[in-house]
Amino acid sequence: xxxxxxxxxxxxxxxxxxxKFSRTSTxxxxxxxxxxxxxxxxxxxxxxxxxxxxxTAVDFLSKVNVRQFKYPFDFAEIISYxxxxxxxxxxxxxxxxIALHDLEGKLKxxxxxxxxGSDPQKMPVTSFTVxxxxxxxLIEKLKGAAGCKVIKVKLGRGSxxxxxxxxxxxTNTPLYVDANQGxxxxxxxxxxxxxxxxxxxxxxxxxxxxxxxxxxxxxxERSPIPIIADEAVQRxxxxxxxxxxxxxxxxxxxxxxxxxxxxxxxxxxxxxxxxILIGCMSETSCATLAAAALAPQCDWADLDGPFLVSNNPFKxxxxxxxxxxxxxxxxxxASAK
Length: 337
Ligand code: MG
Prior knowledge:
This protein has helices at residues 54-61, 75-85, 90-108, 112-115, 135-143, 160-170, 186-198, 213-222, 236-242, 253-256, 259-272, 285-292, 305-308; strands spanning 2-17, 22-35, 38-45, 127-130, 150-154, 175-178, 201-205, 227-229, 248-252, 275-279, 300-301, 319-320, 323-324. The protein is of the alpha/beta class. It folds into 2 domains: 2-110, Enolase-like, N-terminal domain (Enolase-like, domain 1, 2-Layer Sandwich); 114-324, TIM Barrel. α5 (135-143) packs across α6 and α9 runs parallel beside α11.
């Protein structure tokens, strides 16, 4: 097996602002594993606040011995091998895991979603995210959401109601709300959940600091709409800890170290009665298709990466009725442009 990779800067169509920062591009590492004439594609999306970069990714890869990856792949063993090299580094581990899943599908001549037991008929609609912005820019951004059946909006900068009212002035599309830990006052937050329910909001992501378990649990107990853990949940052991504090969890491949552990997290969440949102970072079609392969096992999807970027090096996957379409192509179904 041969491993190759290249750094890539993924450009965003609009500067992306959330409760704590703003950015215009995201460093990626695009990775390929070649075996018996097949190429498995993988991708690490390294959003700055997660602490990974081109440098850390390349350093991690320099320690990976591809001879550890024996087909048929034992993904549990592979993740534990990667965790043994260094803790953290979830995005570069995800790139390897995604490429191996793609490769496995191609070697077995089966689509990844089928190997993971997903039913394409159960694919949830995916949301289109708009960052925090002025009303004029927001309305402009919403034009890019045509075809999407849900809009996700980033709150937490003190002008939350104005932002929602601006969106409601142009569309009645259901909303997901992400506060990115930006809410602080308990009673105001609870009042806000009721107000948001009246505005057609379906769920709220990470309202308060991930370390403030009591406040998140207090709000979850009283909120009329589901409260979903995002920053508080990264890998499998975090799922158990979310029980009793949140209604559900946001699973992302770039936090979970890829498809194998994301799948384990989904199974665990179901066992615990937690709802599941599958989300993404700024990603190309490659990681989006990897998450889409698991999305039918989740309650909601927020897989809008390819809509928000301007230099996706892969072809745009098929999108219909607000949903990604899973096809019978072996592996992920990602093809380079
Ligand atoms: Mg979030």
